[in-house]
Amino acid sequence: MTARVPSLFPFPPGPLGTVPPAFGRLLAEDPVPEVRLADGARIRLVTRHEDVRTVLADDRFSRHRAALLPGRGFGRSQGSGIVDLDPPDHARLRGPVAAAFGAERAARFVPRIEEIAGDVLAGLPAGAGTVDLVTAYTAPFAGRVTCELLGFPGDRWRAVTSDVELLLLPRGAAEEDLAAARDRLGKALGDLLAACRAAPGDSVAHALLGAGPQDAAASLTDEDRRLLLHGLVISGFVTIRDLLARHLFGVLSSPGLAARLAGDPALVPVAVWELLRFYPSTHDGLLRVATEDVVLSGSRIAAGEAVLPLVAAASRDPEVFPDPDVLDISRIADRAIAFGAGRHACPAADLAVAELTVGVARLLAAFPGIAPAVPPEEIEHSSELLPLAVRSLPVVLGPRH
Q1: Which of 365, 330, 336 is nearest to 352 (CA)?
Q2: How many CA atoms are closer than 13 Å to the CA of 117, on its beta-carbon side?
Q3: Which of 28, 30, 129, 191 is 20 to 30 A from 104 via CA?
Q4: pLDDT tens digit sequence for 293-346
Q5: Sign of CA dihedral 285, 280, 227, 102
Q6: Which residues contact 10 (CB under 8 A, 6 or more apart)?
Q7: Cβ pair 310, 285 in contact under 8 A
Q8: Percent helix / strand / coil, the chain, rounded to 5
Q9: Could you tell me how far CA 306 lies from the centroid of its own chain?
């Protein structure tokens, strides 16, 4: 009798950008399967909500050891960023970042997020013409918010984020072009730190310089700060641009939902959490390696095995979310793990939710008659970068309110 060959991962996506249908079967029948990657590596998947939270938050699962694994994708062959570290190295960098994105700074910045959304929307052409929301709205909105929050002038968003995108997705770019982009981005981050040293301010870059010798950020090196800011540019711009586009796709492709939210804006904050559950930014939570034997859902994971927590599968766990394959904006997804859990949970989650809420609410308020320009089936979904995305989102804005 021949041994069963593990399934090839990742699995084909579901219709209209939804999670792979295979997740439902695994949740019900095989919650901790072994799968193989395209390069031949074998890993374990974790699908159930409780188990995913365990892998994300339990120190028996090492992110750093997984980052050093050979291969590409799923967080392998990395090891330089904050998401690739274990304690105590992780805490040294995360503490200042978490402080920089504290609730008070986020609250102070929300009015500016509102203003930026209004500025971008003011430049959109009302009427019957077709507009791509990704290029015309979600990209400039996310780019300007990210740059201003970090400390860059908002009008530099195109220059800063274009280099980020080139380095993330080279698409055959010449090595000299990539080297030039790295140099430009490195210089931009160095110049930002110098400018923040020279003048007081309330940006994240200012916070990472530290307010005094007792501030944890004061112990960071400038190389640490550049590394952190580089990661924040990526997560702030690419993730919000693509998440907001996916959420707007979800709103516009669900019959009557855009009109419902436009008519009752108080529903938008709750809807955002349900959209995060239904249209997550990624299917996985980056590989971990078990440092000792662990049992999850009755399956033994041996020390040394690579484990991939599937955040998107956990968000469809029927034990936590009844009727999980239904987009229900009245659902309060208070156990959502869209931003991770444990030490590596996103420190800027509150700010990200504020951006998504403003991004959806202001668009619907400005153009309450907005409608898709093409059938939902014609929208192309992409996962070339870590955040899942729609390549473009053509709409007819209709009259301006």
Answers
A1: 336
A2: 22
A3: 191
A4: 999 999 999 999 999 999 999 999 999 999 999 999 988 766 778 888 888 888
A5: negative
A6: 20, 283
A7: yes
A8: 50, 10, 40
A9: 22
